[in-house]
Design brief:
By secondary structure, the chain is mainly β. It contains 5 helices and 19 strands. It folds into 2 domains: about 60 residues, no CATH class; about 210 residues, Alpha-Beta Complex (Fumarylacetoacetate hydrolase, domain 2), CATH 3.90.850. Strands 1, 2, 3, 4, 5, 6, 10, 11, 14 and 17 form a 10-stranded mixed beta sheet that branches. A 5-stranded mixed beta sheet has the order 8-19-18-15-16, with no helix packed on it. A two-stranded parallel sheet has the order 7-13.
Length: about 280
């Protein structure tokens, strides 16, 4: 299933993508797409629902972030060898964990609000894991059962804030709109192998990133297991699993960074696509 959140006439609603690619309303079946409704009980309830009987949602509906009320937005850094090399960093022996503020979360087609003093805003398309069951110090073999599904994430970053202002990466990762998720949450059963997904990103039509999740250093099971050793993962939490090579910081001979007026377009097999315009946040 592909679960979405949308707004229509000022009202936020949960929905599901039908077999024709349209949105059907889940109003009256679940309240929202969030931690409380991502348990196996609710997923099974939705699987048993006859989608064709649900009300169609007008195409004018605006897609929202695919998960609401996220308690933690966890990220794994340098999880592709080619990206670690382009960043000039050593290949990690263990997953590199950092966080994005949940206030950075935005929708799949929202504008990216770039600060007026931004000089090095960058892009990082990623596979996102959405947690469906509380996970605390779990075994790797049990990791998959704690996943509700997957979503597309763009881990946008202001590199000067991230690396040139001291402290931790979170400063450059947490700007408003620098964490778009969606367009939809794809349930676990629909992506039995998350380690063979093509994933890509374009800026103004030029493809900079063209990778595959098979090249991750630490796979989905290892990531969920590992993160759960250090913090309790709650339903609705998101883990971004790292990005392949092709970010602006890694371009040669000259680095390339985002400018106001540009268009960001990214996607991955089965996870849909995002489309954003970069505008100055006055």
């Amino acid at each position: 299933m592909k679960l979405v959140r949308y707004t229509l006439d000022g009202k936020k609603c949960p929905g599901i993508i039908d077999f024709q690619g349209g949105i059907r309303s889940l109003a009256g079946i679940i309240d929202d797409i969030c931690g409380d409704t991502l348990s196996e009980h609710y997923i099974e309830k939705l699987i048993e629902t006859d989608i064709s009987t649900l009300p169609k949602v007008p195409v004018t509906a605006k897609l929202l972030p695919c998960v609401a009320n996220v308690s933690k937005f966890v990220c794994i850094g340098l999880n592709y060898v080619d990206h670690a090399k382009e960043a000039g960093r050593p290949i990690p022996d263990e997953p590199v964990i950092f966080m994005k503020a949940t206030s950075s979360i935005s929708g799949p087609n929202d504008d990216v609000l770039m600060p007026a003093d931004s000089t090095k805003s960058d892009w990082e398309v990623e596979l996102g894991i959405v947690i469906g069951k509380r996970a605390k110090r779990i075994d790797r073999s049990d990791a998959r059962s704690h996943i509700a599904g997957y979503c597309l994430v763009d881990d946008l970053s202001e590199r000067s804030y991230q690396s040139e202002r001291g402290g931790q990466w979170v400063k450059g990762k947490s700007l408003d709109t620098y964490g778009p998720i969606g367009p939809w949450l794809v349930t676990r059963d629909e992506i039995p192998n998350p380690h063979s997904l093509s994933i890509w990103q374009e800026i103004d039509g030029h493809r900079y990133q063209n990778g595959n999740t098979k090249n991750m250093i630490f796979d989905v099971d290892e990531i969920v297991c590992y993160v759960s050793q250090f913090m309790t993962l709650l339903p609705g939490d998101i883990i971004a699993t790292g990005t392949p090579a092709g970010v602006g910081l890694g371009q040669t001979p000259d680095k390339v960074f985002l400018r106001a007026g540009q268009t960001i377009h990214c996607g991955a097999d089965g996870l849909g696509e995002q489309l954003h315009k970069v505008v100055l946040d006055e």
